[in-house]
Amino acid sequence: MTSKDTLVLRAAGRPVGRYVFRPELPARLSPRPYLHPVTTLAGTAVTEVSPADHAHHLGVGVAVPDVEGHNFWGGRTFVRDRGPAELDDHGVQRHTGFQLSDPDGFVEELRWAAAGTELLRERRTVAVTGLTATAWALDLTFSLTNITPGPLSIGSPATNGRPGAAYGGFFWRARKEEGTPRVFTAGREGESEVHGTRADWLALAGGDWTLVFAGATGETRRDPWFVRAAEYPGVGSSLAHGERLAVAPGGTVVRRIVTVVADGRLRRDEAAALVRRAVGP
């Protein structure tokens, strides 16, 4: 179902996600399309938009804090030797159309612009698949193409001098609850052990829900995970972890993340089994 500026996604005949492709947001939040609310099959919400702790966190989407010096993440900008600063440097992702739009997914074209200049064009593909009676999968691929005549580079606060803050790319802001969610991979346990590491999949388990994030291509799996649990619940895949990511004129960056959305708190073996079902061995 599509309205003037939203699209409802369904799994197993149930609404599980609302995609807002023409949001009305202030410039400081780096306006961009996002998914919210996203729910489990039982109806439990597993996303947040503009929470009190980070107003620029917008459910599920693609956000980058530094594209050639422009902020497509929202909020303050981390400046080397200065720290977080309020700058008038925010970009916007503009929806230009759907090539395909169905209840189980869509293919979307977007333009990334800042300071009156278009920097990137994106093709975003989202697909929803039912897995079991209590789990479904959200498959998101984004392709960013440099349409400027010169090279662009993608950075993060980490590449600009803030250790441990390599956020930027796919990002999922989960619902904050009273307790701290459990974070684990196939071989590691806890936020400090998982954050900044590479793993085929990573799970975030709340009170009665679990999200399992998996890189679905070799290149995506090479990106380290950005994880927050104690401060707030959020998971992303880092495009620029140790160094800036260069994009040549006409060059394209492609990443694909599949997220299992499950009711209940999954065990490690259950999470791994659902990833195999959603992504393959």
Keywords:
281 residues, mainly beta, 8-stranded antiparallel sheet, 7% helix, globular
Secondary structure: elements and pairs:
Elements: E1 6-11, E2 14-20, E3 34-38, E4 60-67, E5 70-72, E6 77-79, E7 83-85, E8 92-102, E9 105-114, E10 117-132, E11 135-146, E12 152-155, E13 169-173, E14 182-185, H1 191-194, E15 201-205, E16 209-215, H2 218-221, E17 225-228, E18 234-237, E19 245-247, E20 252-263, H3 268-279
Antiparallel strand pairs: 1-2, 2-3, 4-5, 4-12, 4-13, 6-7, 8-9, 9-10, 10-11, 11-20, 12-19, 13-18, 14-15, 15-16, 16-20, 17-18
Structure description:
- The chain is mostly beta strands and 281 residues long.
- The protein has helices at residues 191-194, 218-221, 268-279; strands at 6-11, 14-20, 34-38, 60-67, 70-72, 77-79, 83-85, 92-102, 105-114, 117-132, 135-146, 152-155, 169-173, 182-185, 201-205, 209-215, 225-228, 234-237, 245-247, 252-263.
- It is 7% helix and 47% strand.
- It has an 8-stranded antiparallel β-sheet with strand order 8-9-10-11-20-16-15-14. Strands 4, 5, 12, 13, 17, 18 and 19 form a 7-stranded antiparallel β-sheet that branches.
- The two termini are 33 Å apart.
- The mean pLDDT is 96.
Radius of gyration equals 18 Å
% residues in beta strands: over 45%
Helix content: under 10%
Spell out the helices and strands N to C: EEEEEEEEEEEEEEHEEHEEEEH
Task: Determine the structural class based on helices, strands and strand pairing.
Answer: mainly beta
Gap from first CA to last CA: 33 Å
- Low-confidence runs of at least 5 consecutive residues: none
Query: Outline, from the CA principal axes?
Result: globular
Please describe the biggest sheet, giving its number of strands, its sense, and whether it closes into a barrel: 8 strands, antiparallel
Total beta-strand segments: 20
The helix tally amounts to 3
Strand order of the largest sheet: 8-9-10-11-20-16-15-14
